[in-house]
Amino acid sequence: MARKKGISKQNRRRRRARRGKAPAALVLLCLLVGAVAMVTAVTIFFKIQIVTVTGESRYSKEQIAQASGLQLGENLVLFDKFAAIDSIFAQCPYLDEIQMRRRPPDEIEIIVTECVPAAVLKGERGSWLIDKKGKILEKTTNFQGENFPVIVGAQPDSPEVGKYVEFLQQDTKKTLLFLLNTAEDDDILKDIEEIDLSQQYDIRFRYLGRFTVRLGTTEDLEKKLKWLHTITEDKLSPNVTGTLDLSDTQKAARFIPDTN
Fold first, then answer.
1. Under 8 Å between Cβ of 117 and 129
2. Radius of gyration of the chain (CA)
């Protein structure tokens, strides 16, 4: 009798265990059906029908939309957004930033910002227009550098349009970009005609068509540019030409007039 009771208790436990498993399996089945329904809905209903482009640039909206490689009827959710952005950058090198937003049920918005040219980098095999981040915007063998400083004495390493410039000389990129950005923030970049980076301890540039500025290194650059403003704007007459030596911030700046 005791044995029968033991067997009966085991059977009741097994039946309860089976009843406990049934709801869990049912929940799992419902979740699976829901997921399949969701994927089916996304695949069927969310299709790209509209591609809009916002932001000013030299490229037409049609050019940018075509460069993205997006096709009408393509799935709005499942397409590769990053591949589309890379495709636009490859074909439109003057673009600085690209954002891409999905706008259900059927629209993609492409938001673009254009690069601002900052300088002309002159190399042995041509010249490259770059922005202040060092992005190469275009190549030309006959660029006069109008309105942009011309960078000499720094040889780019395998330059390619749409890529960021690298140099054969160590630390040249860091020096150049710091100089370009600081000069732009100081609003003098437009007044610089040429920057010579042949010797990074003796950087020089032509300024206002009247001065050769000896900068030395870029150390204490903001202080050196303050000296530049003080001397050229307050202490020298408009017709004076010569060399400004700002290389040593531990000593007073020196002006050496031209003798010609």
1. yes
2. 33
Distances (CA, A) of 7 to 15, 109, 165, 213: 12, 69, 82, 102
Q: How would CATH label the architecture of 117-257?
A: 3-Layer(aba) Sandwich (3.40)
Nearest to 182 by CA among 193, 174, 172, 170: 174
Q: Report if pTM > 0.85.
A: no
Q: Extract the runs of DSSP E, i.e. beta strands, from 46-92.
A: 50-54
Domain 50-114 fold is: Ubiquitin-like (UB roll) (3.10.20)
Task: Note whether 130 and 159 are within 8 A (CB).
Answer: no
Nearest to 102 by CA among 75, 129, 71: 75
pLDDT in tens, 168-215: 887 999 999 999 999 999 999 999 999 999 999 999 999 999 999 999
Domain range list for the chain:
50-114, 117-257
> Do 117-257 and 50-114 have the same topology in CATH?
no
Asked if 193 contacts 206 with a C-beta cutoff of 8 angstroms, the reply is: yes
β-sheet with 254-257: strand ranges across: 136-140, 126-131, 117-123, 150-152, 192-196, 203-207, 211-216, 242-245, 254-257
